[in-house]
Amino acid sequence: MTTGEPLAFGLVGYGEVGGILGAALAKTGRARVAAWDLLLASEPTAGPMRAHAGAAGVTTVGSMAELTARSAVIVSAVTASQAWAVADEAARTIRAGTWFVDLNSCSPGTKARAAARIDAAGGRYVESAVMTSVPPYGIRVPMLLGGPHAAGLKDLLAPLGFSMEVAAPTIGVASAIKMCRSVIIKGLESLVVESFGTARAYGVEQPVLDSLKETFPTLDWETLGSYLASRTALHGKRRAEEMREVAVTVREAGLDPWMSTAIAERQALMGALKAQGAFAGVAKDANWREYADRVLAATGDAAPAVQPGGAASGPTPHGEGIAATSRR
What we know:
The chain has eleven helices and ten strands. The protein is of the alpha/beta class. It folds into two domains: 7-171, 3-Layer(aba) Sandwich (Rossmann fold); 177-324, N-(1-d-carboxylethyl)-l-norvaline Dehydrogenase, domain 2 (Orthogonal Bundle), CATH 1.10.1040. Strands 3-2-1-4-5-6-7-8 form an eight-stranded mixed sheet, sandwiched between helices. Strands 9-10 form a two-stranded antiparallel ribbon. Strand 2 (31-36), helix 2 and strand 3 form a beta-alpha-beta unit. It is globular and about 60 Å long.
């Protein structure tokens, strides 16, 4: 890129992350941004996506080949399950020297496989582990880079406002850090959904919250619970795919991924409920109780009645017995 010449970016995947990065890059005035997404190939998704892109200053294209033909930097921001397919397809038409930045949450083994494919085709593969939620940060979201081309990419993109650090010159280290972190982060989300939802069904949420506060006094469990519940309600499908890659990572390390597999199932359920419309109309900043009520209503409107001494006598419809005393 010569001085003053816009850097040509190609975004593969124009979902939440792609949309945010694309708009931010276009706004700098130092980047020319195009996007390709499978949803652009079919209605009714294509119309709104093109409108969003147009308003953000992003050009939509009709194929991967068209994207690679015009891009100096390709950013892959799809779901984890599609990451390898995107790398494989891009490698068929990628131009020599093109940077390929893989933002997807995949196992070190998957990243190594994609790197070998892109580099063999003449591209420059860089793994990128996005270390926190993108929306609050936008283009400045912290990223860990990996691979022999990582340092060069960091120097190239730093003037545009990216916040990047090189984790290692080898592929897999950055992803391993992200995957291990995800066991905790997505695990907390899943624990909150399961624990708080169950407490809501029994009508004992306040004693549970009080007990958690006593054990972890520095955490605001009301606020944290609402945030964690909203993240899995909004992005459960994507998180489930990521956790399946985490399970692969754990297996690659020689361990059994019991926790990661269970987390993936809980996240997948939340994704399925969202697809069914269970969370329609719920505000992003809603209290966790609203999410819990929607989950309980969608997964079987029955709660166990607690008898004196703590025994459960079987299912009782919500609105009766103990569950009715604490709904607000």
